[in-house]
Amino acid sequence: MNNTGFNIYDLFVFYEIASLSYPQGFDEFMEEITEKSTRLFGTRRLAVVLLSENGEKKEHYFGFKSKQNLEEMLMIKPENSFVYYLDGGRLGFMYFENDHKISLRGNKLYSIFSKRIEELLKAKFMEQNIKESEEKFKNIFLQSPLGIEIYDKNGRLLEVNRAFMEIFGVVNPDEVKGFRLFEDHNLQEDQKAKLLGGEAVRYETEFDFDIVKSMRLYNTKKSGRMHIDCSITPLKLNYEIYGYIVIVQDITERKRNEEKIRYLTFHDNVTGLYNRHYFEEELKRLDVERQLPLSMIIGDLNGLKLVNDTFGHFEGDELLKKIADILRRACRKEDIIARWGGDEFAILLPKTGKKTAEQICMRIENFCREDEGRIPLSIALGCATKENHLEDINEVLNRAEDAMYRQKSMEGSEVRKRLLLALKRTLLENTDETEEHMDRIKNLALKMAEKLRLSEEQLNSVKLLAEFHDIGKVAVPEDLFRKGKPPTSDEIILMQKHVETGYRIAISFPELAGIAEAILHHHERWDGKGYPKGLKGEEIPILARIISIVDSYDELIHSMSYENNADCIGALREIKRNSGIIFDPELVDLFMSINDSTSLNH
Questions:
Q1: Bridge partners, 227 (sequence order)
Q2: Is the torsion defined by CA of 186, 192, 194, 199 positive or negative?
Q3: CA-CA to 441 of 20 to 30 Å: which in 367, 371, 482, 590?
């Protein structure tokens, strides 16, 4: 899904709509409308009623048994129908009906389809009016949004309209009058023959303004190139050609959109690499004997889910772009590099042996090691080679995938370790956390845990929790820790999300999974007024209750308020004051018992 709300299939529909033919005859055009609407939108019944200025009516029905049935539907306007009034009803209307209720998306697509039909019908009616009446033609000629050229019977240009001048950047219309239609290099010989025989022709071409300037054909205020759609119709009276009318449209934007559609069809929109569809097509094309040996590399980017969960999908996309750039640098021009899936990549290496494929893998790994981002860039790789034309290419692909998964399994622990160290480094560099703070609360928490006779496993969890309880702060904007003034309400909400981010990080690492719940709840309060879930009392995990006390105590004695208070009595008094409110009262008593708190009784 793109930021317009349309998906890739919708883009194909747009392409089909854009390719709707210019109507040469009513019946043929109605057949094309029927074919496209039934195929693209599942239309089961269709009615088109066209009105002309002289009162003539043309009708086309598909799926209706009678006109009365249509009139009933127009009155009821069921949810499975779409009605479009052409040019506000002046040119008639179109009625489409599906088997099911038409969604908002379906209504949008029907609207785009109808507007394209309306656009083509307007152009067709304009052409007919020109043939029917010279007076009407003059009005249309002057007001038309389409570029119009009028030639005499010898193909000499007589008149152009304002739209033509705008399209071609003509400053003075007299400079183009006299141009010869049949000297236009865009006209093929067979098209010239058709025109001379009284038949209409149509073509699309690229128009180069630089050629106009270099050949001094006329003065133009435009430059570069544009794509035009050109329709040429002989004007006849009593079967004799007395002139030609040329209708021109600037279709540069349409061509650009078609290129975008073609690009999106075969490319991944995040990395710019080829997509899986293109890779599979190339795999079929290259699976021939003359391309042997044919090697392939399968890669799985490490840490993408963690980055998405921690820093958001924008950062995840940046990681994908970074690894895509490395793959491009490591591979050769003729290699096919594709994003295979979410975090998977595939590389096709024609006429490449296993040794060279392994060297490319080494280059990729070396480039990853050279990266200095806050998240270590690494990718698990596996390669395999097809050397015998009888070998099934899918088996080769499976071998490459198996090799990749083996590497991922063997190196998984080391990769996780590097990721965790990188996150901790970011925590210490970009937030208010320090190694000293972690060590102090670790010692205090261990004293409490030992007094509580917690198990060896829980003691180890206490050590980890002291170190990683605020790991979620890595996703908080760095400037929030440096601003030097109280945070706003929005900034407080943003800061509070660090517990949920920390939880997601913890469950991503087997080493931290055991303390994930404690990380999530270490800002809950005994009275239930904490966050993120408002747990109260013993609903809060005991490790979270312990770390809450020692973390708050250490922050108090090292804050501005207490930095000169050597005996820390004020900090202890604050902890005691919040016993049963913020902190577990029994754990507060235990904490007091392991501190020299006799002064509290004074």
A1: 206
A2: positive
A3: 482
User: What confidence score (pLDDT) does residue 150 get?
Assistant: 92
Query: At 101, which amino acid appears?
Result: K
- Reported as type and span, the H/E element at residue 157 is strand 157-160
Neighbours of 103 (CB within 10 A): 11
End-to-end CA distance of the chain: 68
Distance of alpha carbon 444 from the chain centroid: 49
Residue recorded with tokens 């312990």: 546
Alpha carbons within 13 angstroms on the beta-carbon side of residue 415 total 19
- Residues 425 and 438 sit within 8 Å (Cβ to Cβ): no
Neighbour tally for 368: CB within 10 Å: 19
Q: Are 357 and 263 in contact (CB under 8 A)?
A: no
CB 373 within 8 A of CB 322: yes
Out of 231-245, 345-359, 360-374, 557-571, the most confident range is 345-359
Range 355-380 average pLDDT: 92
Q: Which amino acid, residue 290?
A: R
Q: Which residue has the tokens 């290419």?
A: 393
pLDDT value, residue 600: 39
Q: Is 458 helix (H, G, I), strand (E, B) or coil?
A: helix
> What are the tokens at 503?
């939880």
Task: Identify the pLDDT of residue 43.
Answer: 93
Against a cut of 0.70, is the pTM above it? Answer: no
AA identity, residue 77 = K
| Angstrom distance (rounded) from CA 306 to CA 376 | 12
Q: Which residues of 303-336 are buried (b: 16+ CB within 10 A; e: fewer)?
A: bbebbbbbbeeebbbebbebbbebbeebbeeebb
Are 303 and 419 spatial neighbours (Cβ–Cβ below 8 Å)?
A: yes
The residue count for the chain: 602
Distance (Å, rounded) from C-alpha 296 to C-alpha 178? 62
Question: What's phi and psi for 138, nearest 5 deg?
Answer: -60, -45
C-alpha 400/C-alpha 405 separation (Å) is: 9
